[in-house]
Write a structure and sequence with these properties.
The complex is a heterodimer of chains A (86) and B (247). With 86 residues, chain A is mostly helical. In chain A, 81% of the residues lie in helices and 0% in strands. Chain A is elongated. Classes of the chains: A mainly alpha (86), B mainly alpha (247). At the A-B interface, helix 1, helix 2 and helix 3 of A face helix 5 and helix 7 of B.
């Protein structure tokens, strides 16, 4: 369905920017609280960028938006564990 | 000439204050109330015949209901049933706010970040609470990715926590940015058409081009209005699904 493709496209762009914005903002909050200006802001800026990328990847691969929740991957990991123990 | 962003100015229609807070009734509030009234009227009038073989209006209302019901069923599953009324209301409200904004001289409530952010943060808090109530402390296992190497845990958990907090922001910014950009673009093209027509000569004849563009853009804006209501709702479903079904 083309509508779903459009819906996905709309999600992806915002996700990237939002990650960086939220990371930077959380860092700024921590910095102004602990008085460690630019440390956390810089660190969390990059963490935020990574989080944004991760969300884009999740949206693009159709894994939903769950943090840390990948049904298919969890299943294949279980298989791996079985292999290792076996 | 009007500025293309003049359409987004908040105008106070009726001044009100409660315990020193300014809670004036604005044009934005008016269109939120209108969205509620129009959607309620639409559903009530459409469903009045309650015929077995629905007419046009009743079909439209039933299709809207089925659409959201299918969305909840396929994205959340049967545990999502208690939340269906909320999700349906959310969809209808966002859809009607977006569509009412397409009327000339009207106001697009969803083009205000504070409106969309209020909705998104309510959903964020509610979904987090549902997850916490349903799973207790196990909810925090949510942030631990399955099958990642142990030494990477601190970094990955940090990224996951930040990506969780990104949710309300990306949810609200998406709706707001789409409505803001679309409506600004319409006004920019409209302003261009008026300016070109005013210039006279060949330029005036050329004003037909932006005019044609506006026709296309208006169609696109109707699509965006419906699409963004759909995206907002489906993401709410996905977030709810995450909270209900942990790994």
């Amino acid at each position: 369905m083309p509508t779903q493709g459009l819906a996905l496209a709309g999600r992806v762009a915002v996700e990237l920017v939002a990650g960086i914005a939220v990371g930077g903002f959380l860092g700024w909050l921590l910095d102004s609280w602990l008085g460690t200006t630019p440390l956390f802001m810089v660190v969390l800026f990059f963490i935020g960028a990574a989080a944004g990328m991760m969300n884009v990847w999740r949206a693009a691969t159709g894994r939903g938006m769950a943090a840390g929740y990948f049904e298919e991957q969890a299943e294949s990991d279980n298989d791996q564990h079985k292999d290792r123990s076996g | 000439m009007h500025s293309p962003v003049k359409q987004f100015t908040i105008e106070v229609l009726y001044e009100l204050s409660l315990f020193g807070f300014d809670i004036s009734f604005t044009n934005s509030a008016l269109f939120m109330v209108l969205a509620v009234i129009v959607s309620t009227l639409f559903l009530a009038v459409a469903m009045r015949p309650a015929a077995v073989v629905p007419g046009r209006l009743q079909s439209a209302a039933e299709m809207m209901y089925e659409f959201v019901a299918d969305m909840v069923r396929s994205n959340v599953g049967s545990e999502g049933r208690p939340y269906f009324p909320f999700i349906f209301t959310l969809f209808v409200f966002v859809l009607f706010s977006n569509l009412l904004g397409m009327l000339p001289y009207s106001y697009t409530t969803t083009s205000q970040i504070i409106v969309t952010f209020a909705m998104a943060s309510f959903i964020f808090v509610a979904v987090t609470l549902i997850g916490l109530i349903k799973h207790g402390l196990h909810f925090f296992s949510f942030f631990v990715p399955a099958g990642a190497p142990k030494p990477l845990y601190p970094l990955i958990i940090l990224i996951e926590v930040v990506s969780y907090f990104v949710r309300p922001v990306s949810l609200s910014v998406r709706l707001f940015a789409n409505m803001l950009a679309g409506h600004t673009m319409l006004k920019v093209f409209a302003g261009l058409a008026v300016m070109m027509a005013g210039a006279g000569g060949v330029t005036a004849a050329g004003s037909l081009l932006p005019l044609l563009a506006i026709i296309g853009l208006t169609g696109l804006e109707f699509l965006v209005a419906a699409l963004q209501a759909y995206v907002f709702t489906i993401l709410t479903c996905m977030y709810l699904n995450d909270a209900l079904h942990l790994h």
